[in-house]
Amino acid sequence: MTLLTGNGAAILTPDQVQDLVIKPLLSSAVSTQVATIVQTGSQSTRFPIINADPSTSWVAEGAEIPVSDPDIDELVITPPALKGLTVVSNELVADSDPSALNVVGDGLVRDLRVKLDACFFGGVGAGVAPDGIDSLAGVQTTTRAFSESGNLDVFAEAISLAEQVGVLPVDPVTGLPGMGFVGNPADVLAVSTTKVSEDSAQPLLGPDATKATSRSVLGVPLFSSPAVSVGDMWLVPRSKVFIVLRTNPEVIADGSAYFSSDRTAVRAVLRVSPAFPHEAAIIRVVIDGGS
To answer: Which of 7, 80, 139, 243 to pair with 56, CA 20 to 30 A apart?
Structure first.
């Protein structure tokens, strides 16, 4: 992947483009922090959906083993294009200083991050945008609202619902958290500032001295994203939710459209899509006051 001008002359090396755009996007978007990233060169990616496992039986010595087949469906994901555009001065483009190149990358990353998270946590996609988590009919929903319980019971219930369909708190392979809560900043603030009782100043979410800059609920990481609707939080299982990213995304610069102002347009095109093959493992957490 190389950043090119309109006449095909390289400005940035592939490694520079990867460092300026792709890596910051994957590390800063909330959706990419709670889902599994699948990078592929294929046009489409197929995810198996296990509707029912094959059954086993206790069988006597020498007796025939009953045959059972799993009930398997599949989800086919063909990532559409997510595009970002930023315009910079030609003096900035010509500057080889890394800090100048970071300005170009930062603008693209902000644009792509907002659109990717909005798609992931949104509803039915408009136009070519994929459907998001809020459009899924098969998710589970907690039975109580946070402010009604006055404690963390609603989050404990969400974790239990996820565990009942095979979600592990910690990924045994990577050691990463197996699930994460994501809420709108207003709801994250409400949960974070709730006290253990009306006459106490102690927050309900006790601080973790080993992770002073992060938030968690009952040991599960808590993320904040404006892309999530107020009134809902999502418990997202990392091993059951995916973001499919096509390899070799395009990052191209062209000065022809802004020739008269001595500026260059920098365009990024990523083919990316969320994938939710196991909807029942995703839990909607009700926060009181939501829609």
So the answer is: 139
Strands 250-254, 36-40: pairing kind:
unpaired
3-state secondary structure of 76: strand
**Token pair belonging to 277:** 């093959």
pTM for this entry = 0.81
d(CA 190, CA 11): 47
- The token pair that represents 211 in the structure block: 């992770």
> Class of 3-49+68-286 per CATH?
alpha beta
Give the ranges where the chain is alpha helix by DSSP (H): 14-17, 23-28, 30-34, 90-94, 98-121, 146-149, 153-163, 185-193
Residue type, 36: T
Q: How far is the C-alpha of 5 from the C-alpha of 261, rounded, in Å?
A: 16
d(CA 277, CA 275): 6
In terms of DSSP bridges, do strands 242-246 and 36-40 run parallel, antiparallel, or are they unpaired? parallel
Per-residue model confidence as pLDDT tens digits over 209-227: 556 567 899 989 999 999 9
Helix (H) or strand (E) holding 189: helix 185-193
Contact 180, 228 (CB under 8 A): no
Question: How far from the centroid of its chain's Cα atoms is residue 88's Cα?
Answer: 29
Domain range annotation of the chain: 3-49+68-286
Mean pLDDT value across the chain: 83
Residue 291: predicted pLDDT: 43
Contact 151, 255 (CB under 8 A): no
3-state secondary structure of 119: helix
Please report which helix (H) or strand (E) contains residue 268, including its range.
strand 263-275
Contact 79, 271 (CB under 8 A): yes
- The model's pLDDT over 109-143, given as tens digits with 9 standing for 90+, comes to 888 899 999 999 999 887 888 999 999 999 999 98
Residue 253: which of 13, 3, 9, 86 has the closest Cα?
A: 3
